[in-house]
Amino acid sequence: MDRRCIAIVLIGLALAACAALAACAGSGAKLLVDPFPLRFPLAEAGSLEIDGHIVDQPGTKDGIVTFATREGYLTAVVIPSRRVLWSKPVEGASPEAGRAADPGTPALHVEGPVLRAMGAGGRTLWEFTADGPIAAAPALHNGRIYFGTAGRMFYALKAATGKVRWRRRLQGAPAHPAVAAAGRLAVAASNSVVYRLSRRGGSVLSWHAVPSRVVYEPAAAGPFVLISSASPMITALDMRSGTDAGQYEASGPLAAGAVWSPPYVVLFVEDEASGRQKIVFLRSR
User: Dihedral, CA atoms, 103, 106, 109, 115, nearest 10 degrees?
Assistant: First the structure.
């Protein structure tokens, strides 16, 4: 009798789960399942020699990595095939075209401690004056703007109005734009620490010390943030728990910050002997 009851309960649970899935499919709702999660250990899936030397932080979008070189070229590479899509000379070349824009947000202009939101035709929508010079480019995410100052104050503003949502003083000034992942913010600071902040209220949840300094811009990789330091080592910080999710040591010093284009981690590595640089494509083993 007990076995029959258990069987009936299990069948009922299975039918309820099927009904829920059917309801989601019928309503057009998407199941939040990452088909290409970042997993360690990582193994090299190929590489590509670079004609030049990378400047600034490369960007990724739709399986393409875009990077600029100090020789004045902007290059786009298809990541799965490791093939150059195009390369063109551009004065003041910048990889910004390869970054995904945050929709519905104004253009931002920084001048010392002043942050201005610019609308169509260069019209100023709002202006905000921080406690000191803004230390790194503001980051826009889900209708909010995040940035910090040389005075170690970190702000969250409402993108539409410039109103302060919260502010938090840190022990170091932001060295790079903040990165949002898993409902939290990663802020790489000048005191060789990556702070993990609550995106909603700005509470310091934890911090991650980086002995060799965070010299390159961190990058989101699902619920993780890739931290690239002055050494050949990259670290994946789990933004949900604040723990290390894994590490990978490149064959030489990094020339730029690692980026994520599922299912690849893309590195930019320099050969110490020759000075030549290459792109290295990593996948889970």
Answer: -110
- Statement: residue 99 has pLDDT above 50: no
Residues sharing a CB contact under 8 Å with residue 257, sequence separation 6 or more, in sequence order: 57, 58, 216, 217, 218, 219, 226, 228, 268
What are the backbone dihedrals phi and psi of residue 9, each rounded to the nearest 5 degrees, phi first?
-65, -45
- Ramachandran quadrant class, 121 (left: phi over 0; alpha: psi -120 to 50; beta: rest): left
pLDDT value, residue 105:
61
Residue identified by tokens 């253009």 is: 107
Query: CA 19: distance to chain centroid?
Result: 36
Instruction: Report the distance separating Cα 87 and Cα 125, nearest Å.
Output: 36
* Closest residue by Cα to residue 165 from 195, 128, 114: 128
Could you read off the pLDDT of 167-215 as tens digits, one per residue? 999 999 999 999 999 999 999 999 999 999 999 999 999 999 998 888 8
Q: Which residue carries 């790194």 as its tokens?
A: 136
The predicted-structure confidence for 252-280, as pLDDT tens digits, reads as follows 999 999 999 999 999 999 998 899 999 99
In angstroms, rounded to a whole number, what is the distance separating the alpha carbons of residues 201 and 167? 8
Give the span between the Cα atoms of 110 and 129, in whole angstroms: 10
Closest CA to 255 of 247, 267, 246: 267
Alpha-carbon separation of residue 91 from 65, 73, 165, 168, 268 (angstroms): 19, 8, 38, 38, 22
User: N- to C-terminal Cα distance for the chain?
Assistant: 48
Q: Which residues contact 129 (CB under 8 A, 6 or more apart)?
A: 113, 114, 115
- Which residue type, as a one-letter code, is found at position 209? A
Sign of torsion over alpha carbons 233, 238, 241, 245: negative
Q: Cα–Cα–Cα angle for 216, 219, 225, nearest 5°?
A: 110
Instruction: State whether residue 113 is helix, strand or coil.
Output: coil
